[in-house]
Design goal:
Number of strands: 11
Number of helices: 9
Strand order of the largest sheet: 6-5-4-3-2-1-7-8-11
Radius of gyration: 18 Å
Order of helices and strands: HEHEHEHEHHEHEHEEEEEH
CATH class: Alpha Beta
Oligomer: single chain
CATH topology: TIM Barrel
Shape: globular
Length: about 280
């Protein structure tokens, strides 16, 4: 078996490591992978644990980090933590974008000029359509937050999750995000994956392990195959994509993932445009 560094350099193993900062959220989206919401138990990775994982990831040869939840910006000092992570490896932080007012908007200014991008969810250019899945006034909060963040020197990406393949809808959305200051290169469109709350709502496409990028994902519960691995349904954590309960040292789940990836048929994976 090769090392993670060699596998990443050869393109055999994806270079990004994901960190689930938390599972609680201020929203209750219909297709949420983790059944996140305001009343969800606060299982968190500490800032110290995230930073140590990042340092080990860099030493092992990984090249990027992702932070997701839940809503990461409900965790105290998340802007400072993201800045620390970005100083180790290029980092993208996923957020619903609804919390950036007042003190949180001021606090996030620490990310200006750093190697950290914020990826904000925006599913439709039609407010009612967007808000149907994500909650009341979501659209208005997001379209206000995006230019406010960009004005402060923060890199913003947009992720659109949905089942519509109507080209006119997509064209309107692209026109909107360009007007907000986000170029096409920083906009990703992906399907709803039928895991978590989407199963209950009968939404999304089925995805097997071969459909998901083998991006090492670290949570408070263990290490998983993909950020789509540590999902929750009916309050119970899915473990079908669990690699190891051990997350420290990081080389343990990294080598486990590498062993599984090296055993896959060449060209047998797709990523469903997930990034």
């Amino acid at each position: 078996m090769s090392t993670p560094a060699a596998a990443v350099a050869a393109g055999v193993l994806p270079g990004r490591v994901w960190l689930y900062s938390n599972y609680h959220c201020n929203l209750t989206c219909t297709y949420c992978l983790t059944e996140s919401g305001p009343g969800v138990q606060r299982r968190e990775l500490t800032a110290e644990r995230m930073l140590e994982t990042a340092r080990q990831a860099a030493e092992l040869g990984f090249t990027a980090l992702g932070v997701t939840g839940g809503e990461p910006f409900l965790v105290p000092d998340m802007p400072k933590t993201l800045a620390g992570l970005g100083a180790i490896l290029p980092t993208v932080g996923l957020t619903n974008g609804t919390l950036f007012t007042g003190r949180r908007l001021a606090a996030v200014e620490v990310l200006a000029g750093t190697d950290v991008a914020l990826q904000i969810s925006l599913d439709s250019a039609v407010p009612a359509v967007n808000d149907e899945a994500r909650g009341p006034d979501n659209f208005a909060k997001v379209v206000a937050a995006i230019p406010a963040l960009i004005e402060r020197g923060i890199t913003v990406r947009i992720a659109t999750t949905g089942e519509s393949d109507n080209p006119d809808d997509l064209a309107r959305l692209c026109e909107l995000h360009r007007g907000l200051g986000v170029p096409d290169s920083d906009h990703v469109v992906r399907p709803v994956i039928s895991r978590g709350r989407a199963v209950t709502a009968d939404l999304g496409v089925d995805a097997t392990v071969d459909d998901l990028p083998a991006e090492l994902t670290i949570t408070a519960d263990g290490a998983f195959w993909s950020p789509f691995g540590p999902t929750v349904i009916n309050g119970r954590l899915d473990t079908d994509l669990l690699l190891t309960r051990t997350t420290d040292p990081l080389r343990v789940p990294a080598q486990t993932l590498l062993g599984l990836v090296e055993g896959r048929p060449a060209g047998g994976d797709t990523t469903l445009n997930i990034r």
